[in-house]
């Protein structure tokens, strides 16, 4: 490591964001230094979540004696040395002075070696009281103990051992996903909690972090535009989590957080999943560093990207395409290996409680990898040629159907809702609009602010073929509606369309509004559970469903159809083994 001393001006710029507040931020600084030193193996050992001890061992280039001493000087950094460089940051860390900050509030032992003779330095409370030769192999071992011992106010802000450990785990997991070429090991009180092999294979790394259930349900994404290259994996909607923490986005090798990117990814899953659930995503984005401003936030996680709209489009289109091409009728295979799936999580995950929040949305989660491969051989087009024949209805809610290949179970509401949803989406595109005049116009009284909001955005309904007029103070009257609005849409449900315009309110986004309108209307127009259907009605529904672009889910992401192959039926009844 070559250490340089940077200008005071730059130091001040950076020092503004200088915060070491939790064990994870110490781990972060030390590990980023190890990465910058070219380490291929990085081991982090915590005691009590890092509160008692943080040790980072790397096999990087190490330091000679002069650098080892200088490394703890304020404003020493190997990474930046003039202001302009802030805009060309490609190495990970840039707050070289973090070591000095850490050393000023703890006790540090560092053994480092760049060649034959190693160096041992000891610092307590910022004072270096020992520099001596040491025998060592190449690399650095740095140990932080008694964090915040001399600043009780900050010590108080450290969270429980479990929370501190969890923060470190989350950080190392994300970092490992961004650096599959580096082998990471994280232990807490001698228990291994994260371990990756450094195979430089992203999918293998995902397996090592998330386990088999996730890694066997990932779709590869690979695409580029003039300014961006994206590569990575996104989970099938059968594997969802209850929070956004598993949207891992990596820009030029750096783990980042960017709401626009997250939204583009999440939007691509629209109609494939329920709201409030999020996919597991690991996406590497490569772009010209001049398009990235990493310095807007002291934690360096938030970034600003120029031409973000292009990137959003690239992500959205390619993820959507991957989902569309790969989603098939979930096979409802009941699998004995179900009980083995959990043990495939390679992690000793006492601390990792959120790993268990994977949502079992379809039975596909239970399928063993071999079976998933089988599914992938099919393509969407095949379903469209299916000739499903209805057998009957269960509890007025599910339809049983068959073809030569096996048996199908449909949720009649979800299936019908999908059919209606796609029908309405198509109607939105048509230029000729059939209109139904209402026998009895419906008048609706609104509050003043709702009335104003509605009138501001009324044009969107006009364009769809609604005839809505002002009718006295804060009152509107609906005189006609598009003809595709059929069953259940003569009375109160019309009012919910007006409400939808109002709730979309101030920052009205037409695309979003139309999508929620289609979802709402298709739900209300669809056959409900506990409704008897005739043979002809079931037959029609089956025919309409297989013609859909995505027959597998309702527009809210619930499954609409499940398949049991003949083989699976035979397996269930032990006709085959
Ligand atoms: Zn519904
Ligand atoms: Zn639904």
The rounded distance between the terminal residues' Cα atoms is 61 Å
CATH topology of the largest domain: Heat Shock Protein 90
CATH superfamily of the largest domain: Histidine kinase-like ATPase, C-terminal domain
So how many helices?
20
Please indicate the count of domains. 4
Chart the SSEs and their pairings.
Layout: E1 4-5, H1 8-15, H2 23-36, E2 41-47, E3 53-58, H3 65-70, E4 76-77, H4 98-104, E5 107-113, E6 118-124, E7 127-134, E8 139-145, H5 152-155, H6 161-178, E9 183-188, E10 191-195, H7 202-210, H8 212-215, E11 218-224, E12 228-235, E13 239-241, E14 247-251, E15 254-256, H9 259-268, E16 278-279, E17 281-287, E18 292-293, E19 304-305, H10 308-326, H11 338-341, E20 359-360, H12 369-377, H13 380-384, E21 389-394, E22 398-403, E23 406-411, H14 412-429, E24 435-445, H15 448-457, H16 459-464, E25 467-470, E26 475-482, H17 492-504, H18 510-525, H19 535-546, E27 561-565, H20 566-572
Parallel strand pairs: 2-9, 14-17
Antiparallel strand pairs: 1-4, 2-3, 3-8, 5-6, 5-8, 6-7, 9-10, 11-12, 12-17, 13-16, 13-20, 14-15, 18-19, 21-22, 22-23, 23-27, 24-26, 25-26
Helix pairs in contact: 2-6, 9-10, 14-18, 14-19, 17-18
One zinc ion is lined by residues 413, 417, 523.
Provide structural commentary:
With 577 residues, the protein is of the alpha+beta class. The chain has four domains: 8-195, Histidine kinase-like ATPase, C-terminal domain (Heat Shock Protein 90, 2-Layer Sandwich), CATH 3.30.565; 202-340, 2-Layer Sandwich (Ribosomal Protein S5, domain 2); 379-417 and 529-572, formyl-coa transferase, domain 3, CATH 3.30.1540; 435-482 and 486-524, Ribosomal Protein S8, Chain: A, domain 1. It is built from 20 helices and 27 strands. Helix 14 packs across helix 19 and helix 17 packs antiparallel against helix 18. The longest helix has 19 residues, at 308-326. The protein starts with a strand and ends in a 5-residue tail after the last helix. The model is unreliable at 7-18, 76-95 and 332-381 (pLDDT under 50). One zinc ion is lined by residues 413, 417, 523.
């Amino acid at each position: 490591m070559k250490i340089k001393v940077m200008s005071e001006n730059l130091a001040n710029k950076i020092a503004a964001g200088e915060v070491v507040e939790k064990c994870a931020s110490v781990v972060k600084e030390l590990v980023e230094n190890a990465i910058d030193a070219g380490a291929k193996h990085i081991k982090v050992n915590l005691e009590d979540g890092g509160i008692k001890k943080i040790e980072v061992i790397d096999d990087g280039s190490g330091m000679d004696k002069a650098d080892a001493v200088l490394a703890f000087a304020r404003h020493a950094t190997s990474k930046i040395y003039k202001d302009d460089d802030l805009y060309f940051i490609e190495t990970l860390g840039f707050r070289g002075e973090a070591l000095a900050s850490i050393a000023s509030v703890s006790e540090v032992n560092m053994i480092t070696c760049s060649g034959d003779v190693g160096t041992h330095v000891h610092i307590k409370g910022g004072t270096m009281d020992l520099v001596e030769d040491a025998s060592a192999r190449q690399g650095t071992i740095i140990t932080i103990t008694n964090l915040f011992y001399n600043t009780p106010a900050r010590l108080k802000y450290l969270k429980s051992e479990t929370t501190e450990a969890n923060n470190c785990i989350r950080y190392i997991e994300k970092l490992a996903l961004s650096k599959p070429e580096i082998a990471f090991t994280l232990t807490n009180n001698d228990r291994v909690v994260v371990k990756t092999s450094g195979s430089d294979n992203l999918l293998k790394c995902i397996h090592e972090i998330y386990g088999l259930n996730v890694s066997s349900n990932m779709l590869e994404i690979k695409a580029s535009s003039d300014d961006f290259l994206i590569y990575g994996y996104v989970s099938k909607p059968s594997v969802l989590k209850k929070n956004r923490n598993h949207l891992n986005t990596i820009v030029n090798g750096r783990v980042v957080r960017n709401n626009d990117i997250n939204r583009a990814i999440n939007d691509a899953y629209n109609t494939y999943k329920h709201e409030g659930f999020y996919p597991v995503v690991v996406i590497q984005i490569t772009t010209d560093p001049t398009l990235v401003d990493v310095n807007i936030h002291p934690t360096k996680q938030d970034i600003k990207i120029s031409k973000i709209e292009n990137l959003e489009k690239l992500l959205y289109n390619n993820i959507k395409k991957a989902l569309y091409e790969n989603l098939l009728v979930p096979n409802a295979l009941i699998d004995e290996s179900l009980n083995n799936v959990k043990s495939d999580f390679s992690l000793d995950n006492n601390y990792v409680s959120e790993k268990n929040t994977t949502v079992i949305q379809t039975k596909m989660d239970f399928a063993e990898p071999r079976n998933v491969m089988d599914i992938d051989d099919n393509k969407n087009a095949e379903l469209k040629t299916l000739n499903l024949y209805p057998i009957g209805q269960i509890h007025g809610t599910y339809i049983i159907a068959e073809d030569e290949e096996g048996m199908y179970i449909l949720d009649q509401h979800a299936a019908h809702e999908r059919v209606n949803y796609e029908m309405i989406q198509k109607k939105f595109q048509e230029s000729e609009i059939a209109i139904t005049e209402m026998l009895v116009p419906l008048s609706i009284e609104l509050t003043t602010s709702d009335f104003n909001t509605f009138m501001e955005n009324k044009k969107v309904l006009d364009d769809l073929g609604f005839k809505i007029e002002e009718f006295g103070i804060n009152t509107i009257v609906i005189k006609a509606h598009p003809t595709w609005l059929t069953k259940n849409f003569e009375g109160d449900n019309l009012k919910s369309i007006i409400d939808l315009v109002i709730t979309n309110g101030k920052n009205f986004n037409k695309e979003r509004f139309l999508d929620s309108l289609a979802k709402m209307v298709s739900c209300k127009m669809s056959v409900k559970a506990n409704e008897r259907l005739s043979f002809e009605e079931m037959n029609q529904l089956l025919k309409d469903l297989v013609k859909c672009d995505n027959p597998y889910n309702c527009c809210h992401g619930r499954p609409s159809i499940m398949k049991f192959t003949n083989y699976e039926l035979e397996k269930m009844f032990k006709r085959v083994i």
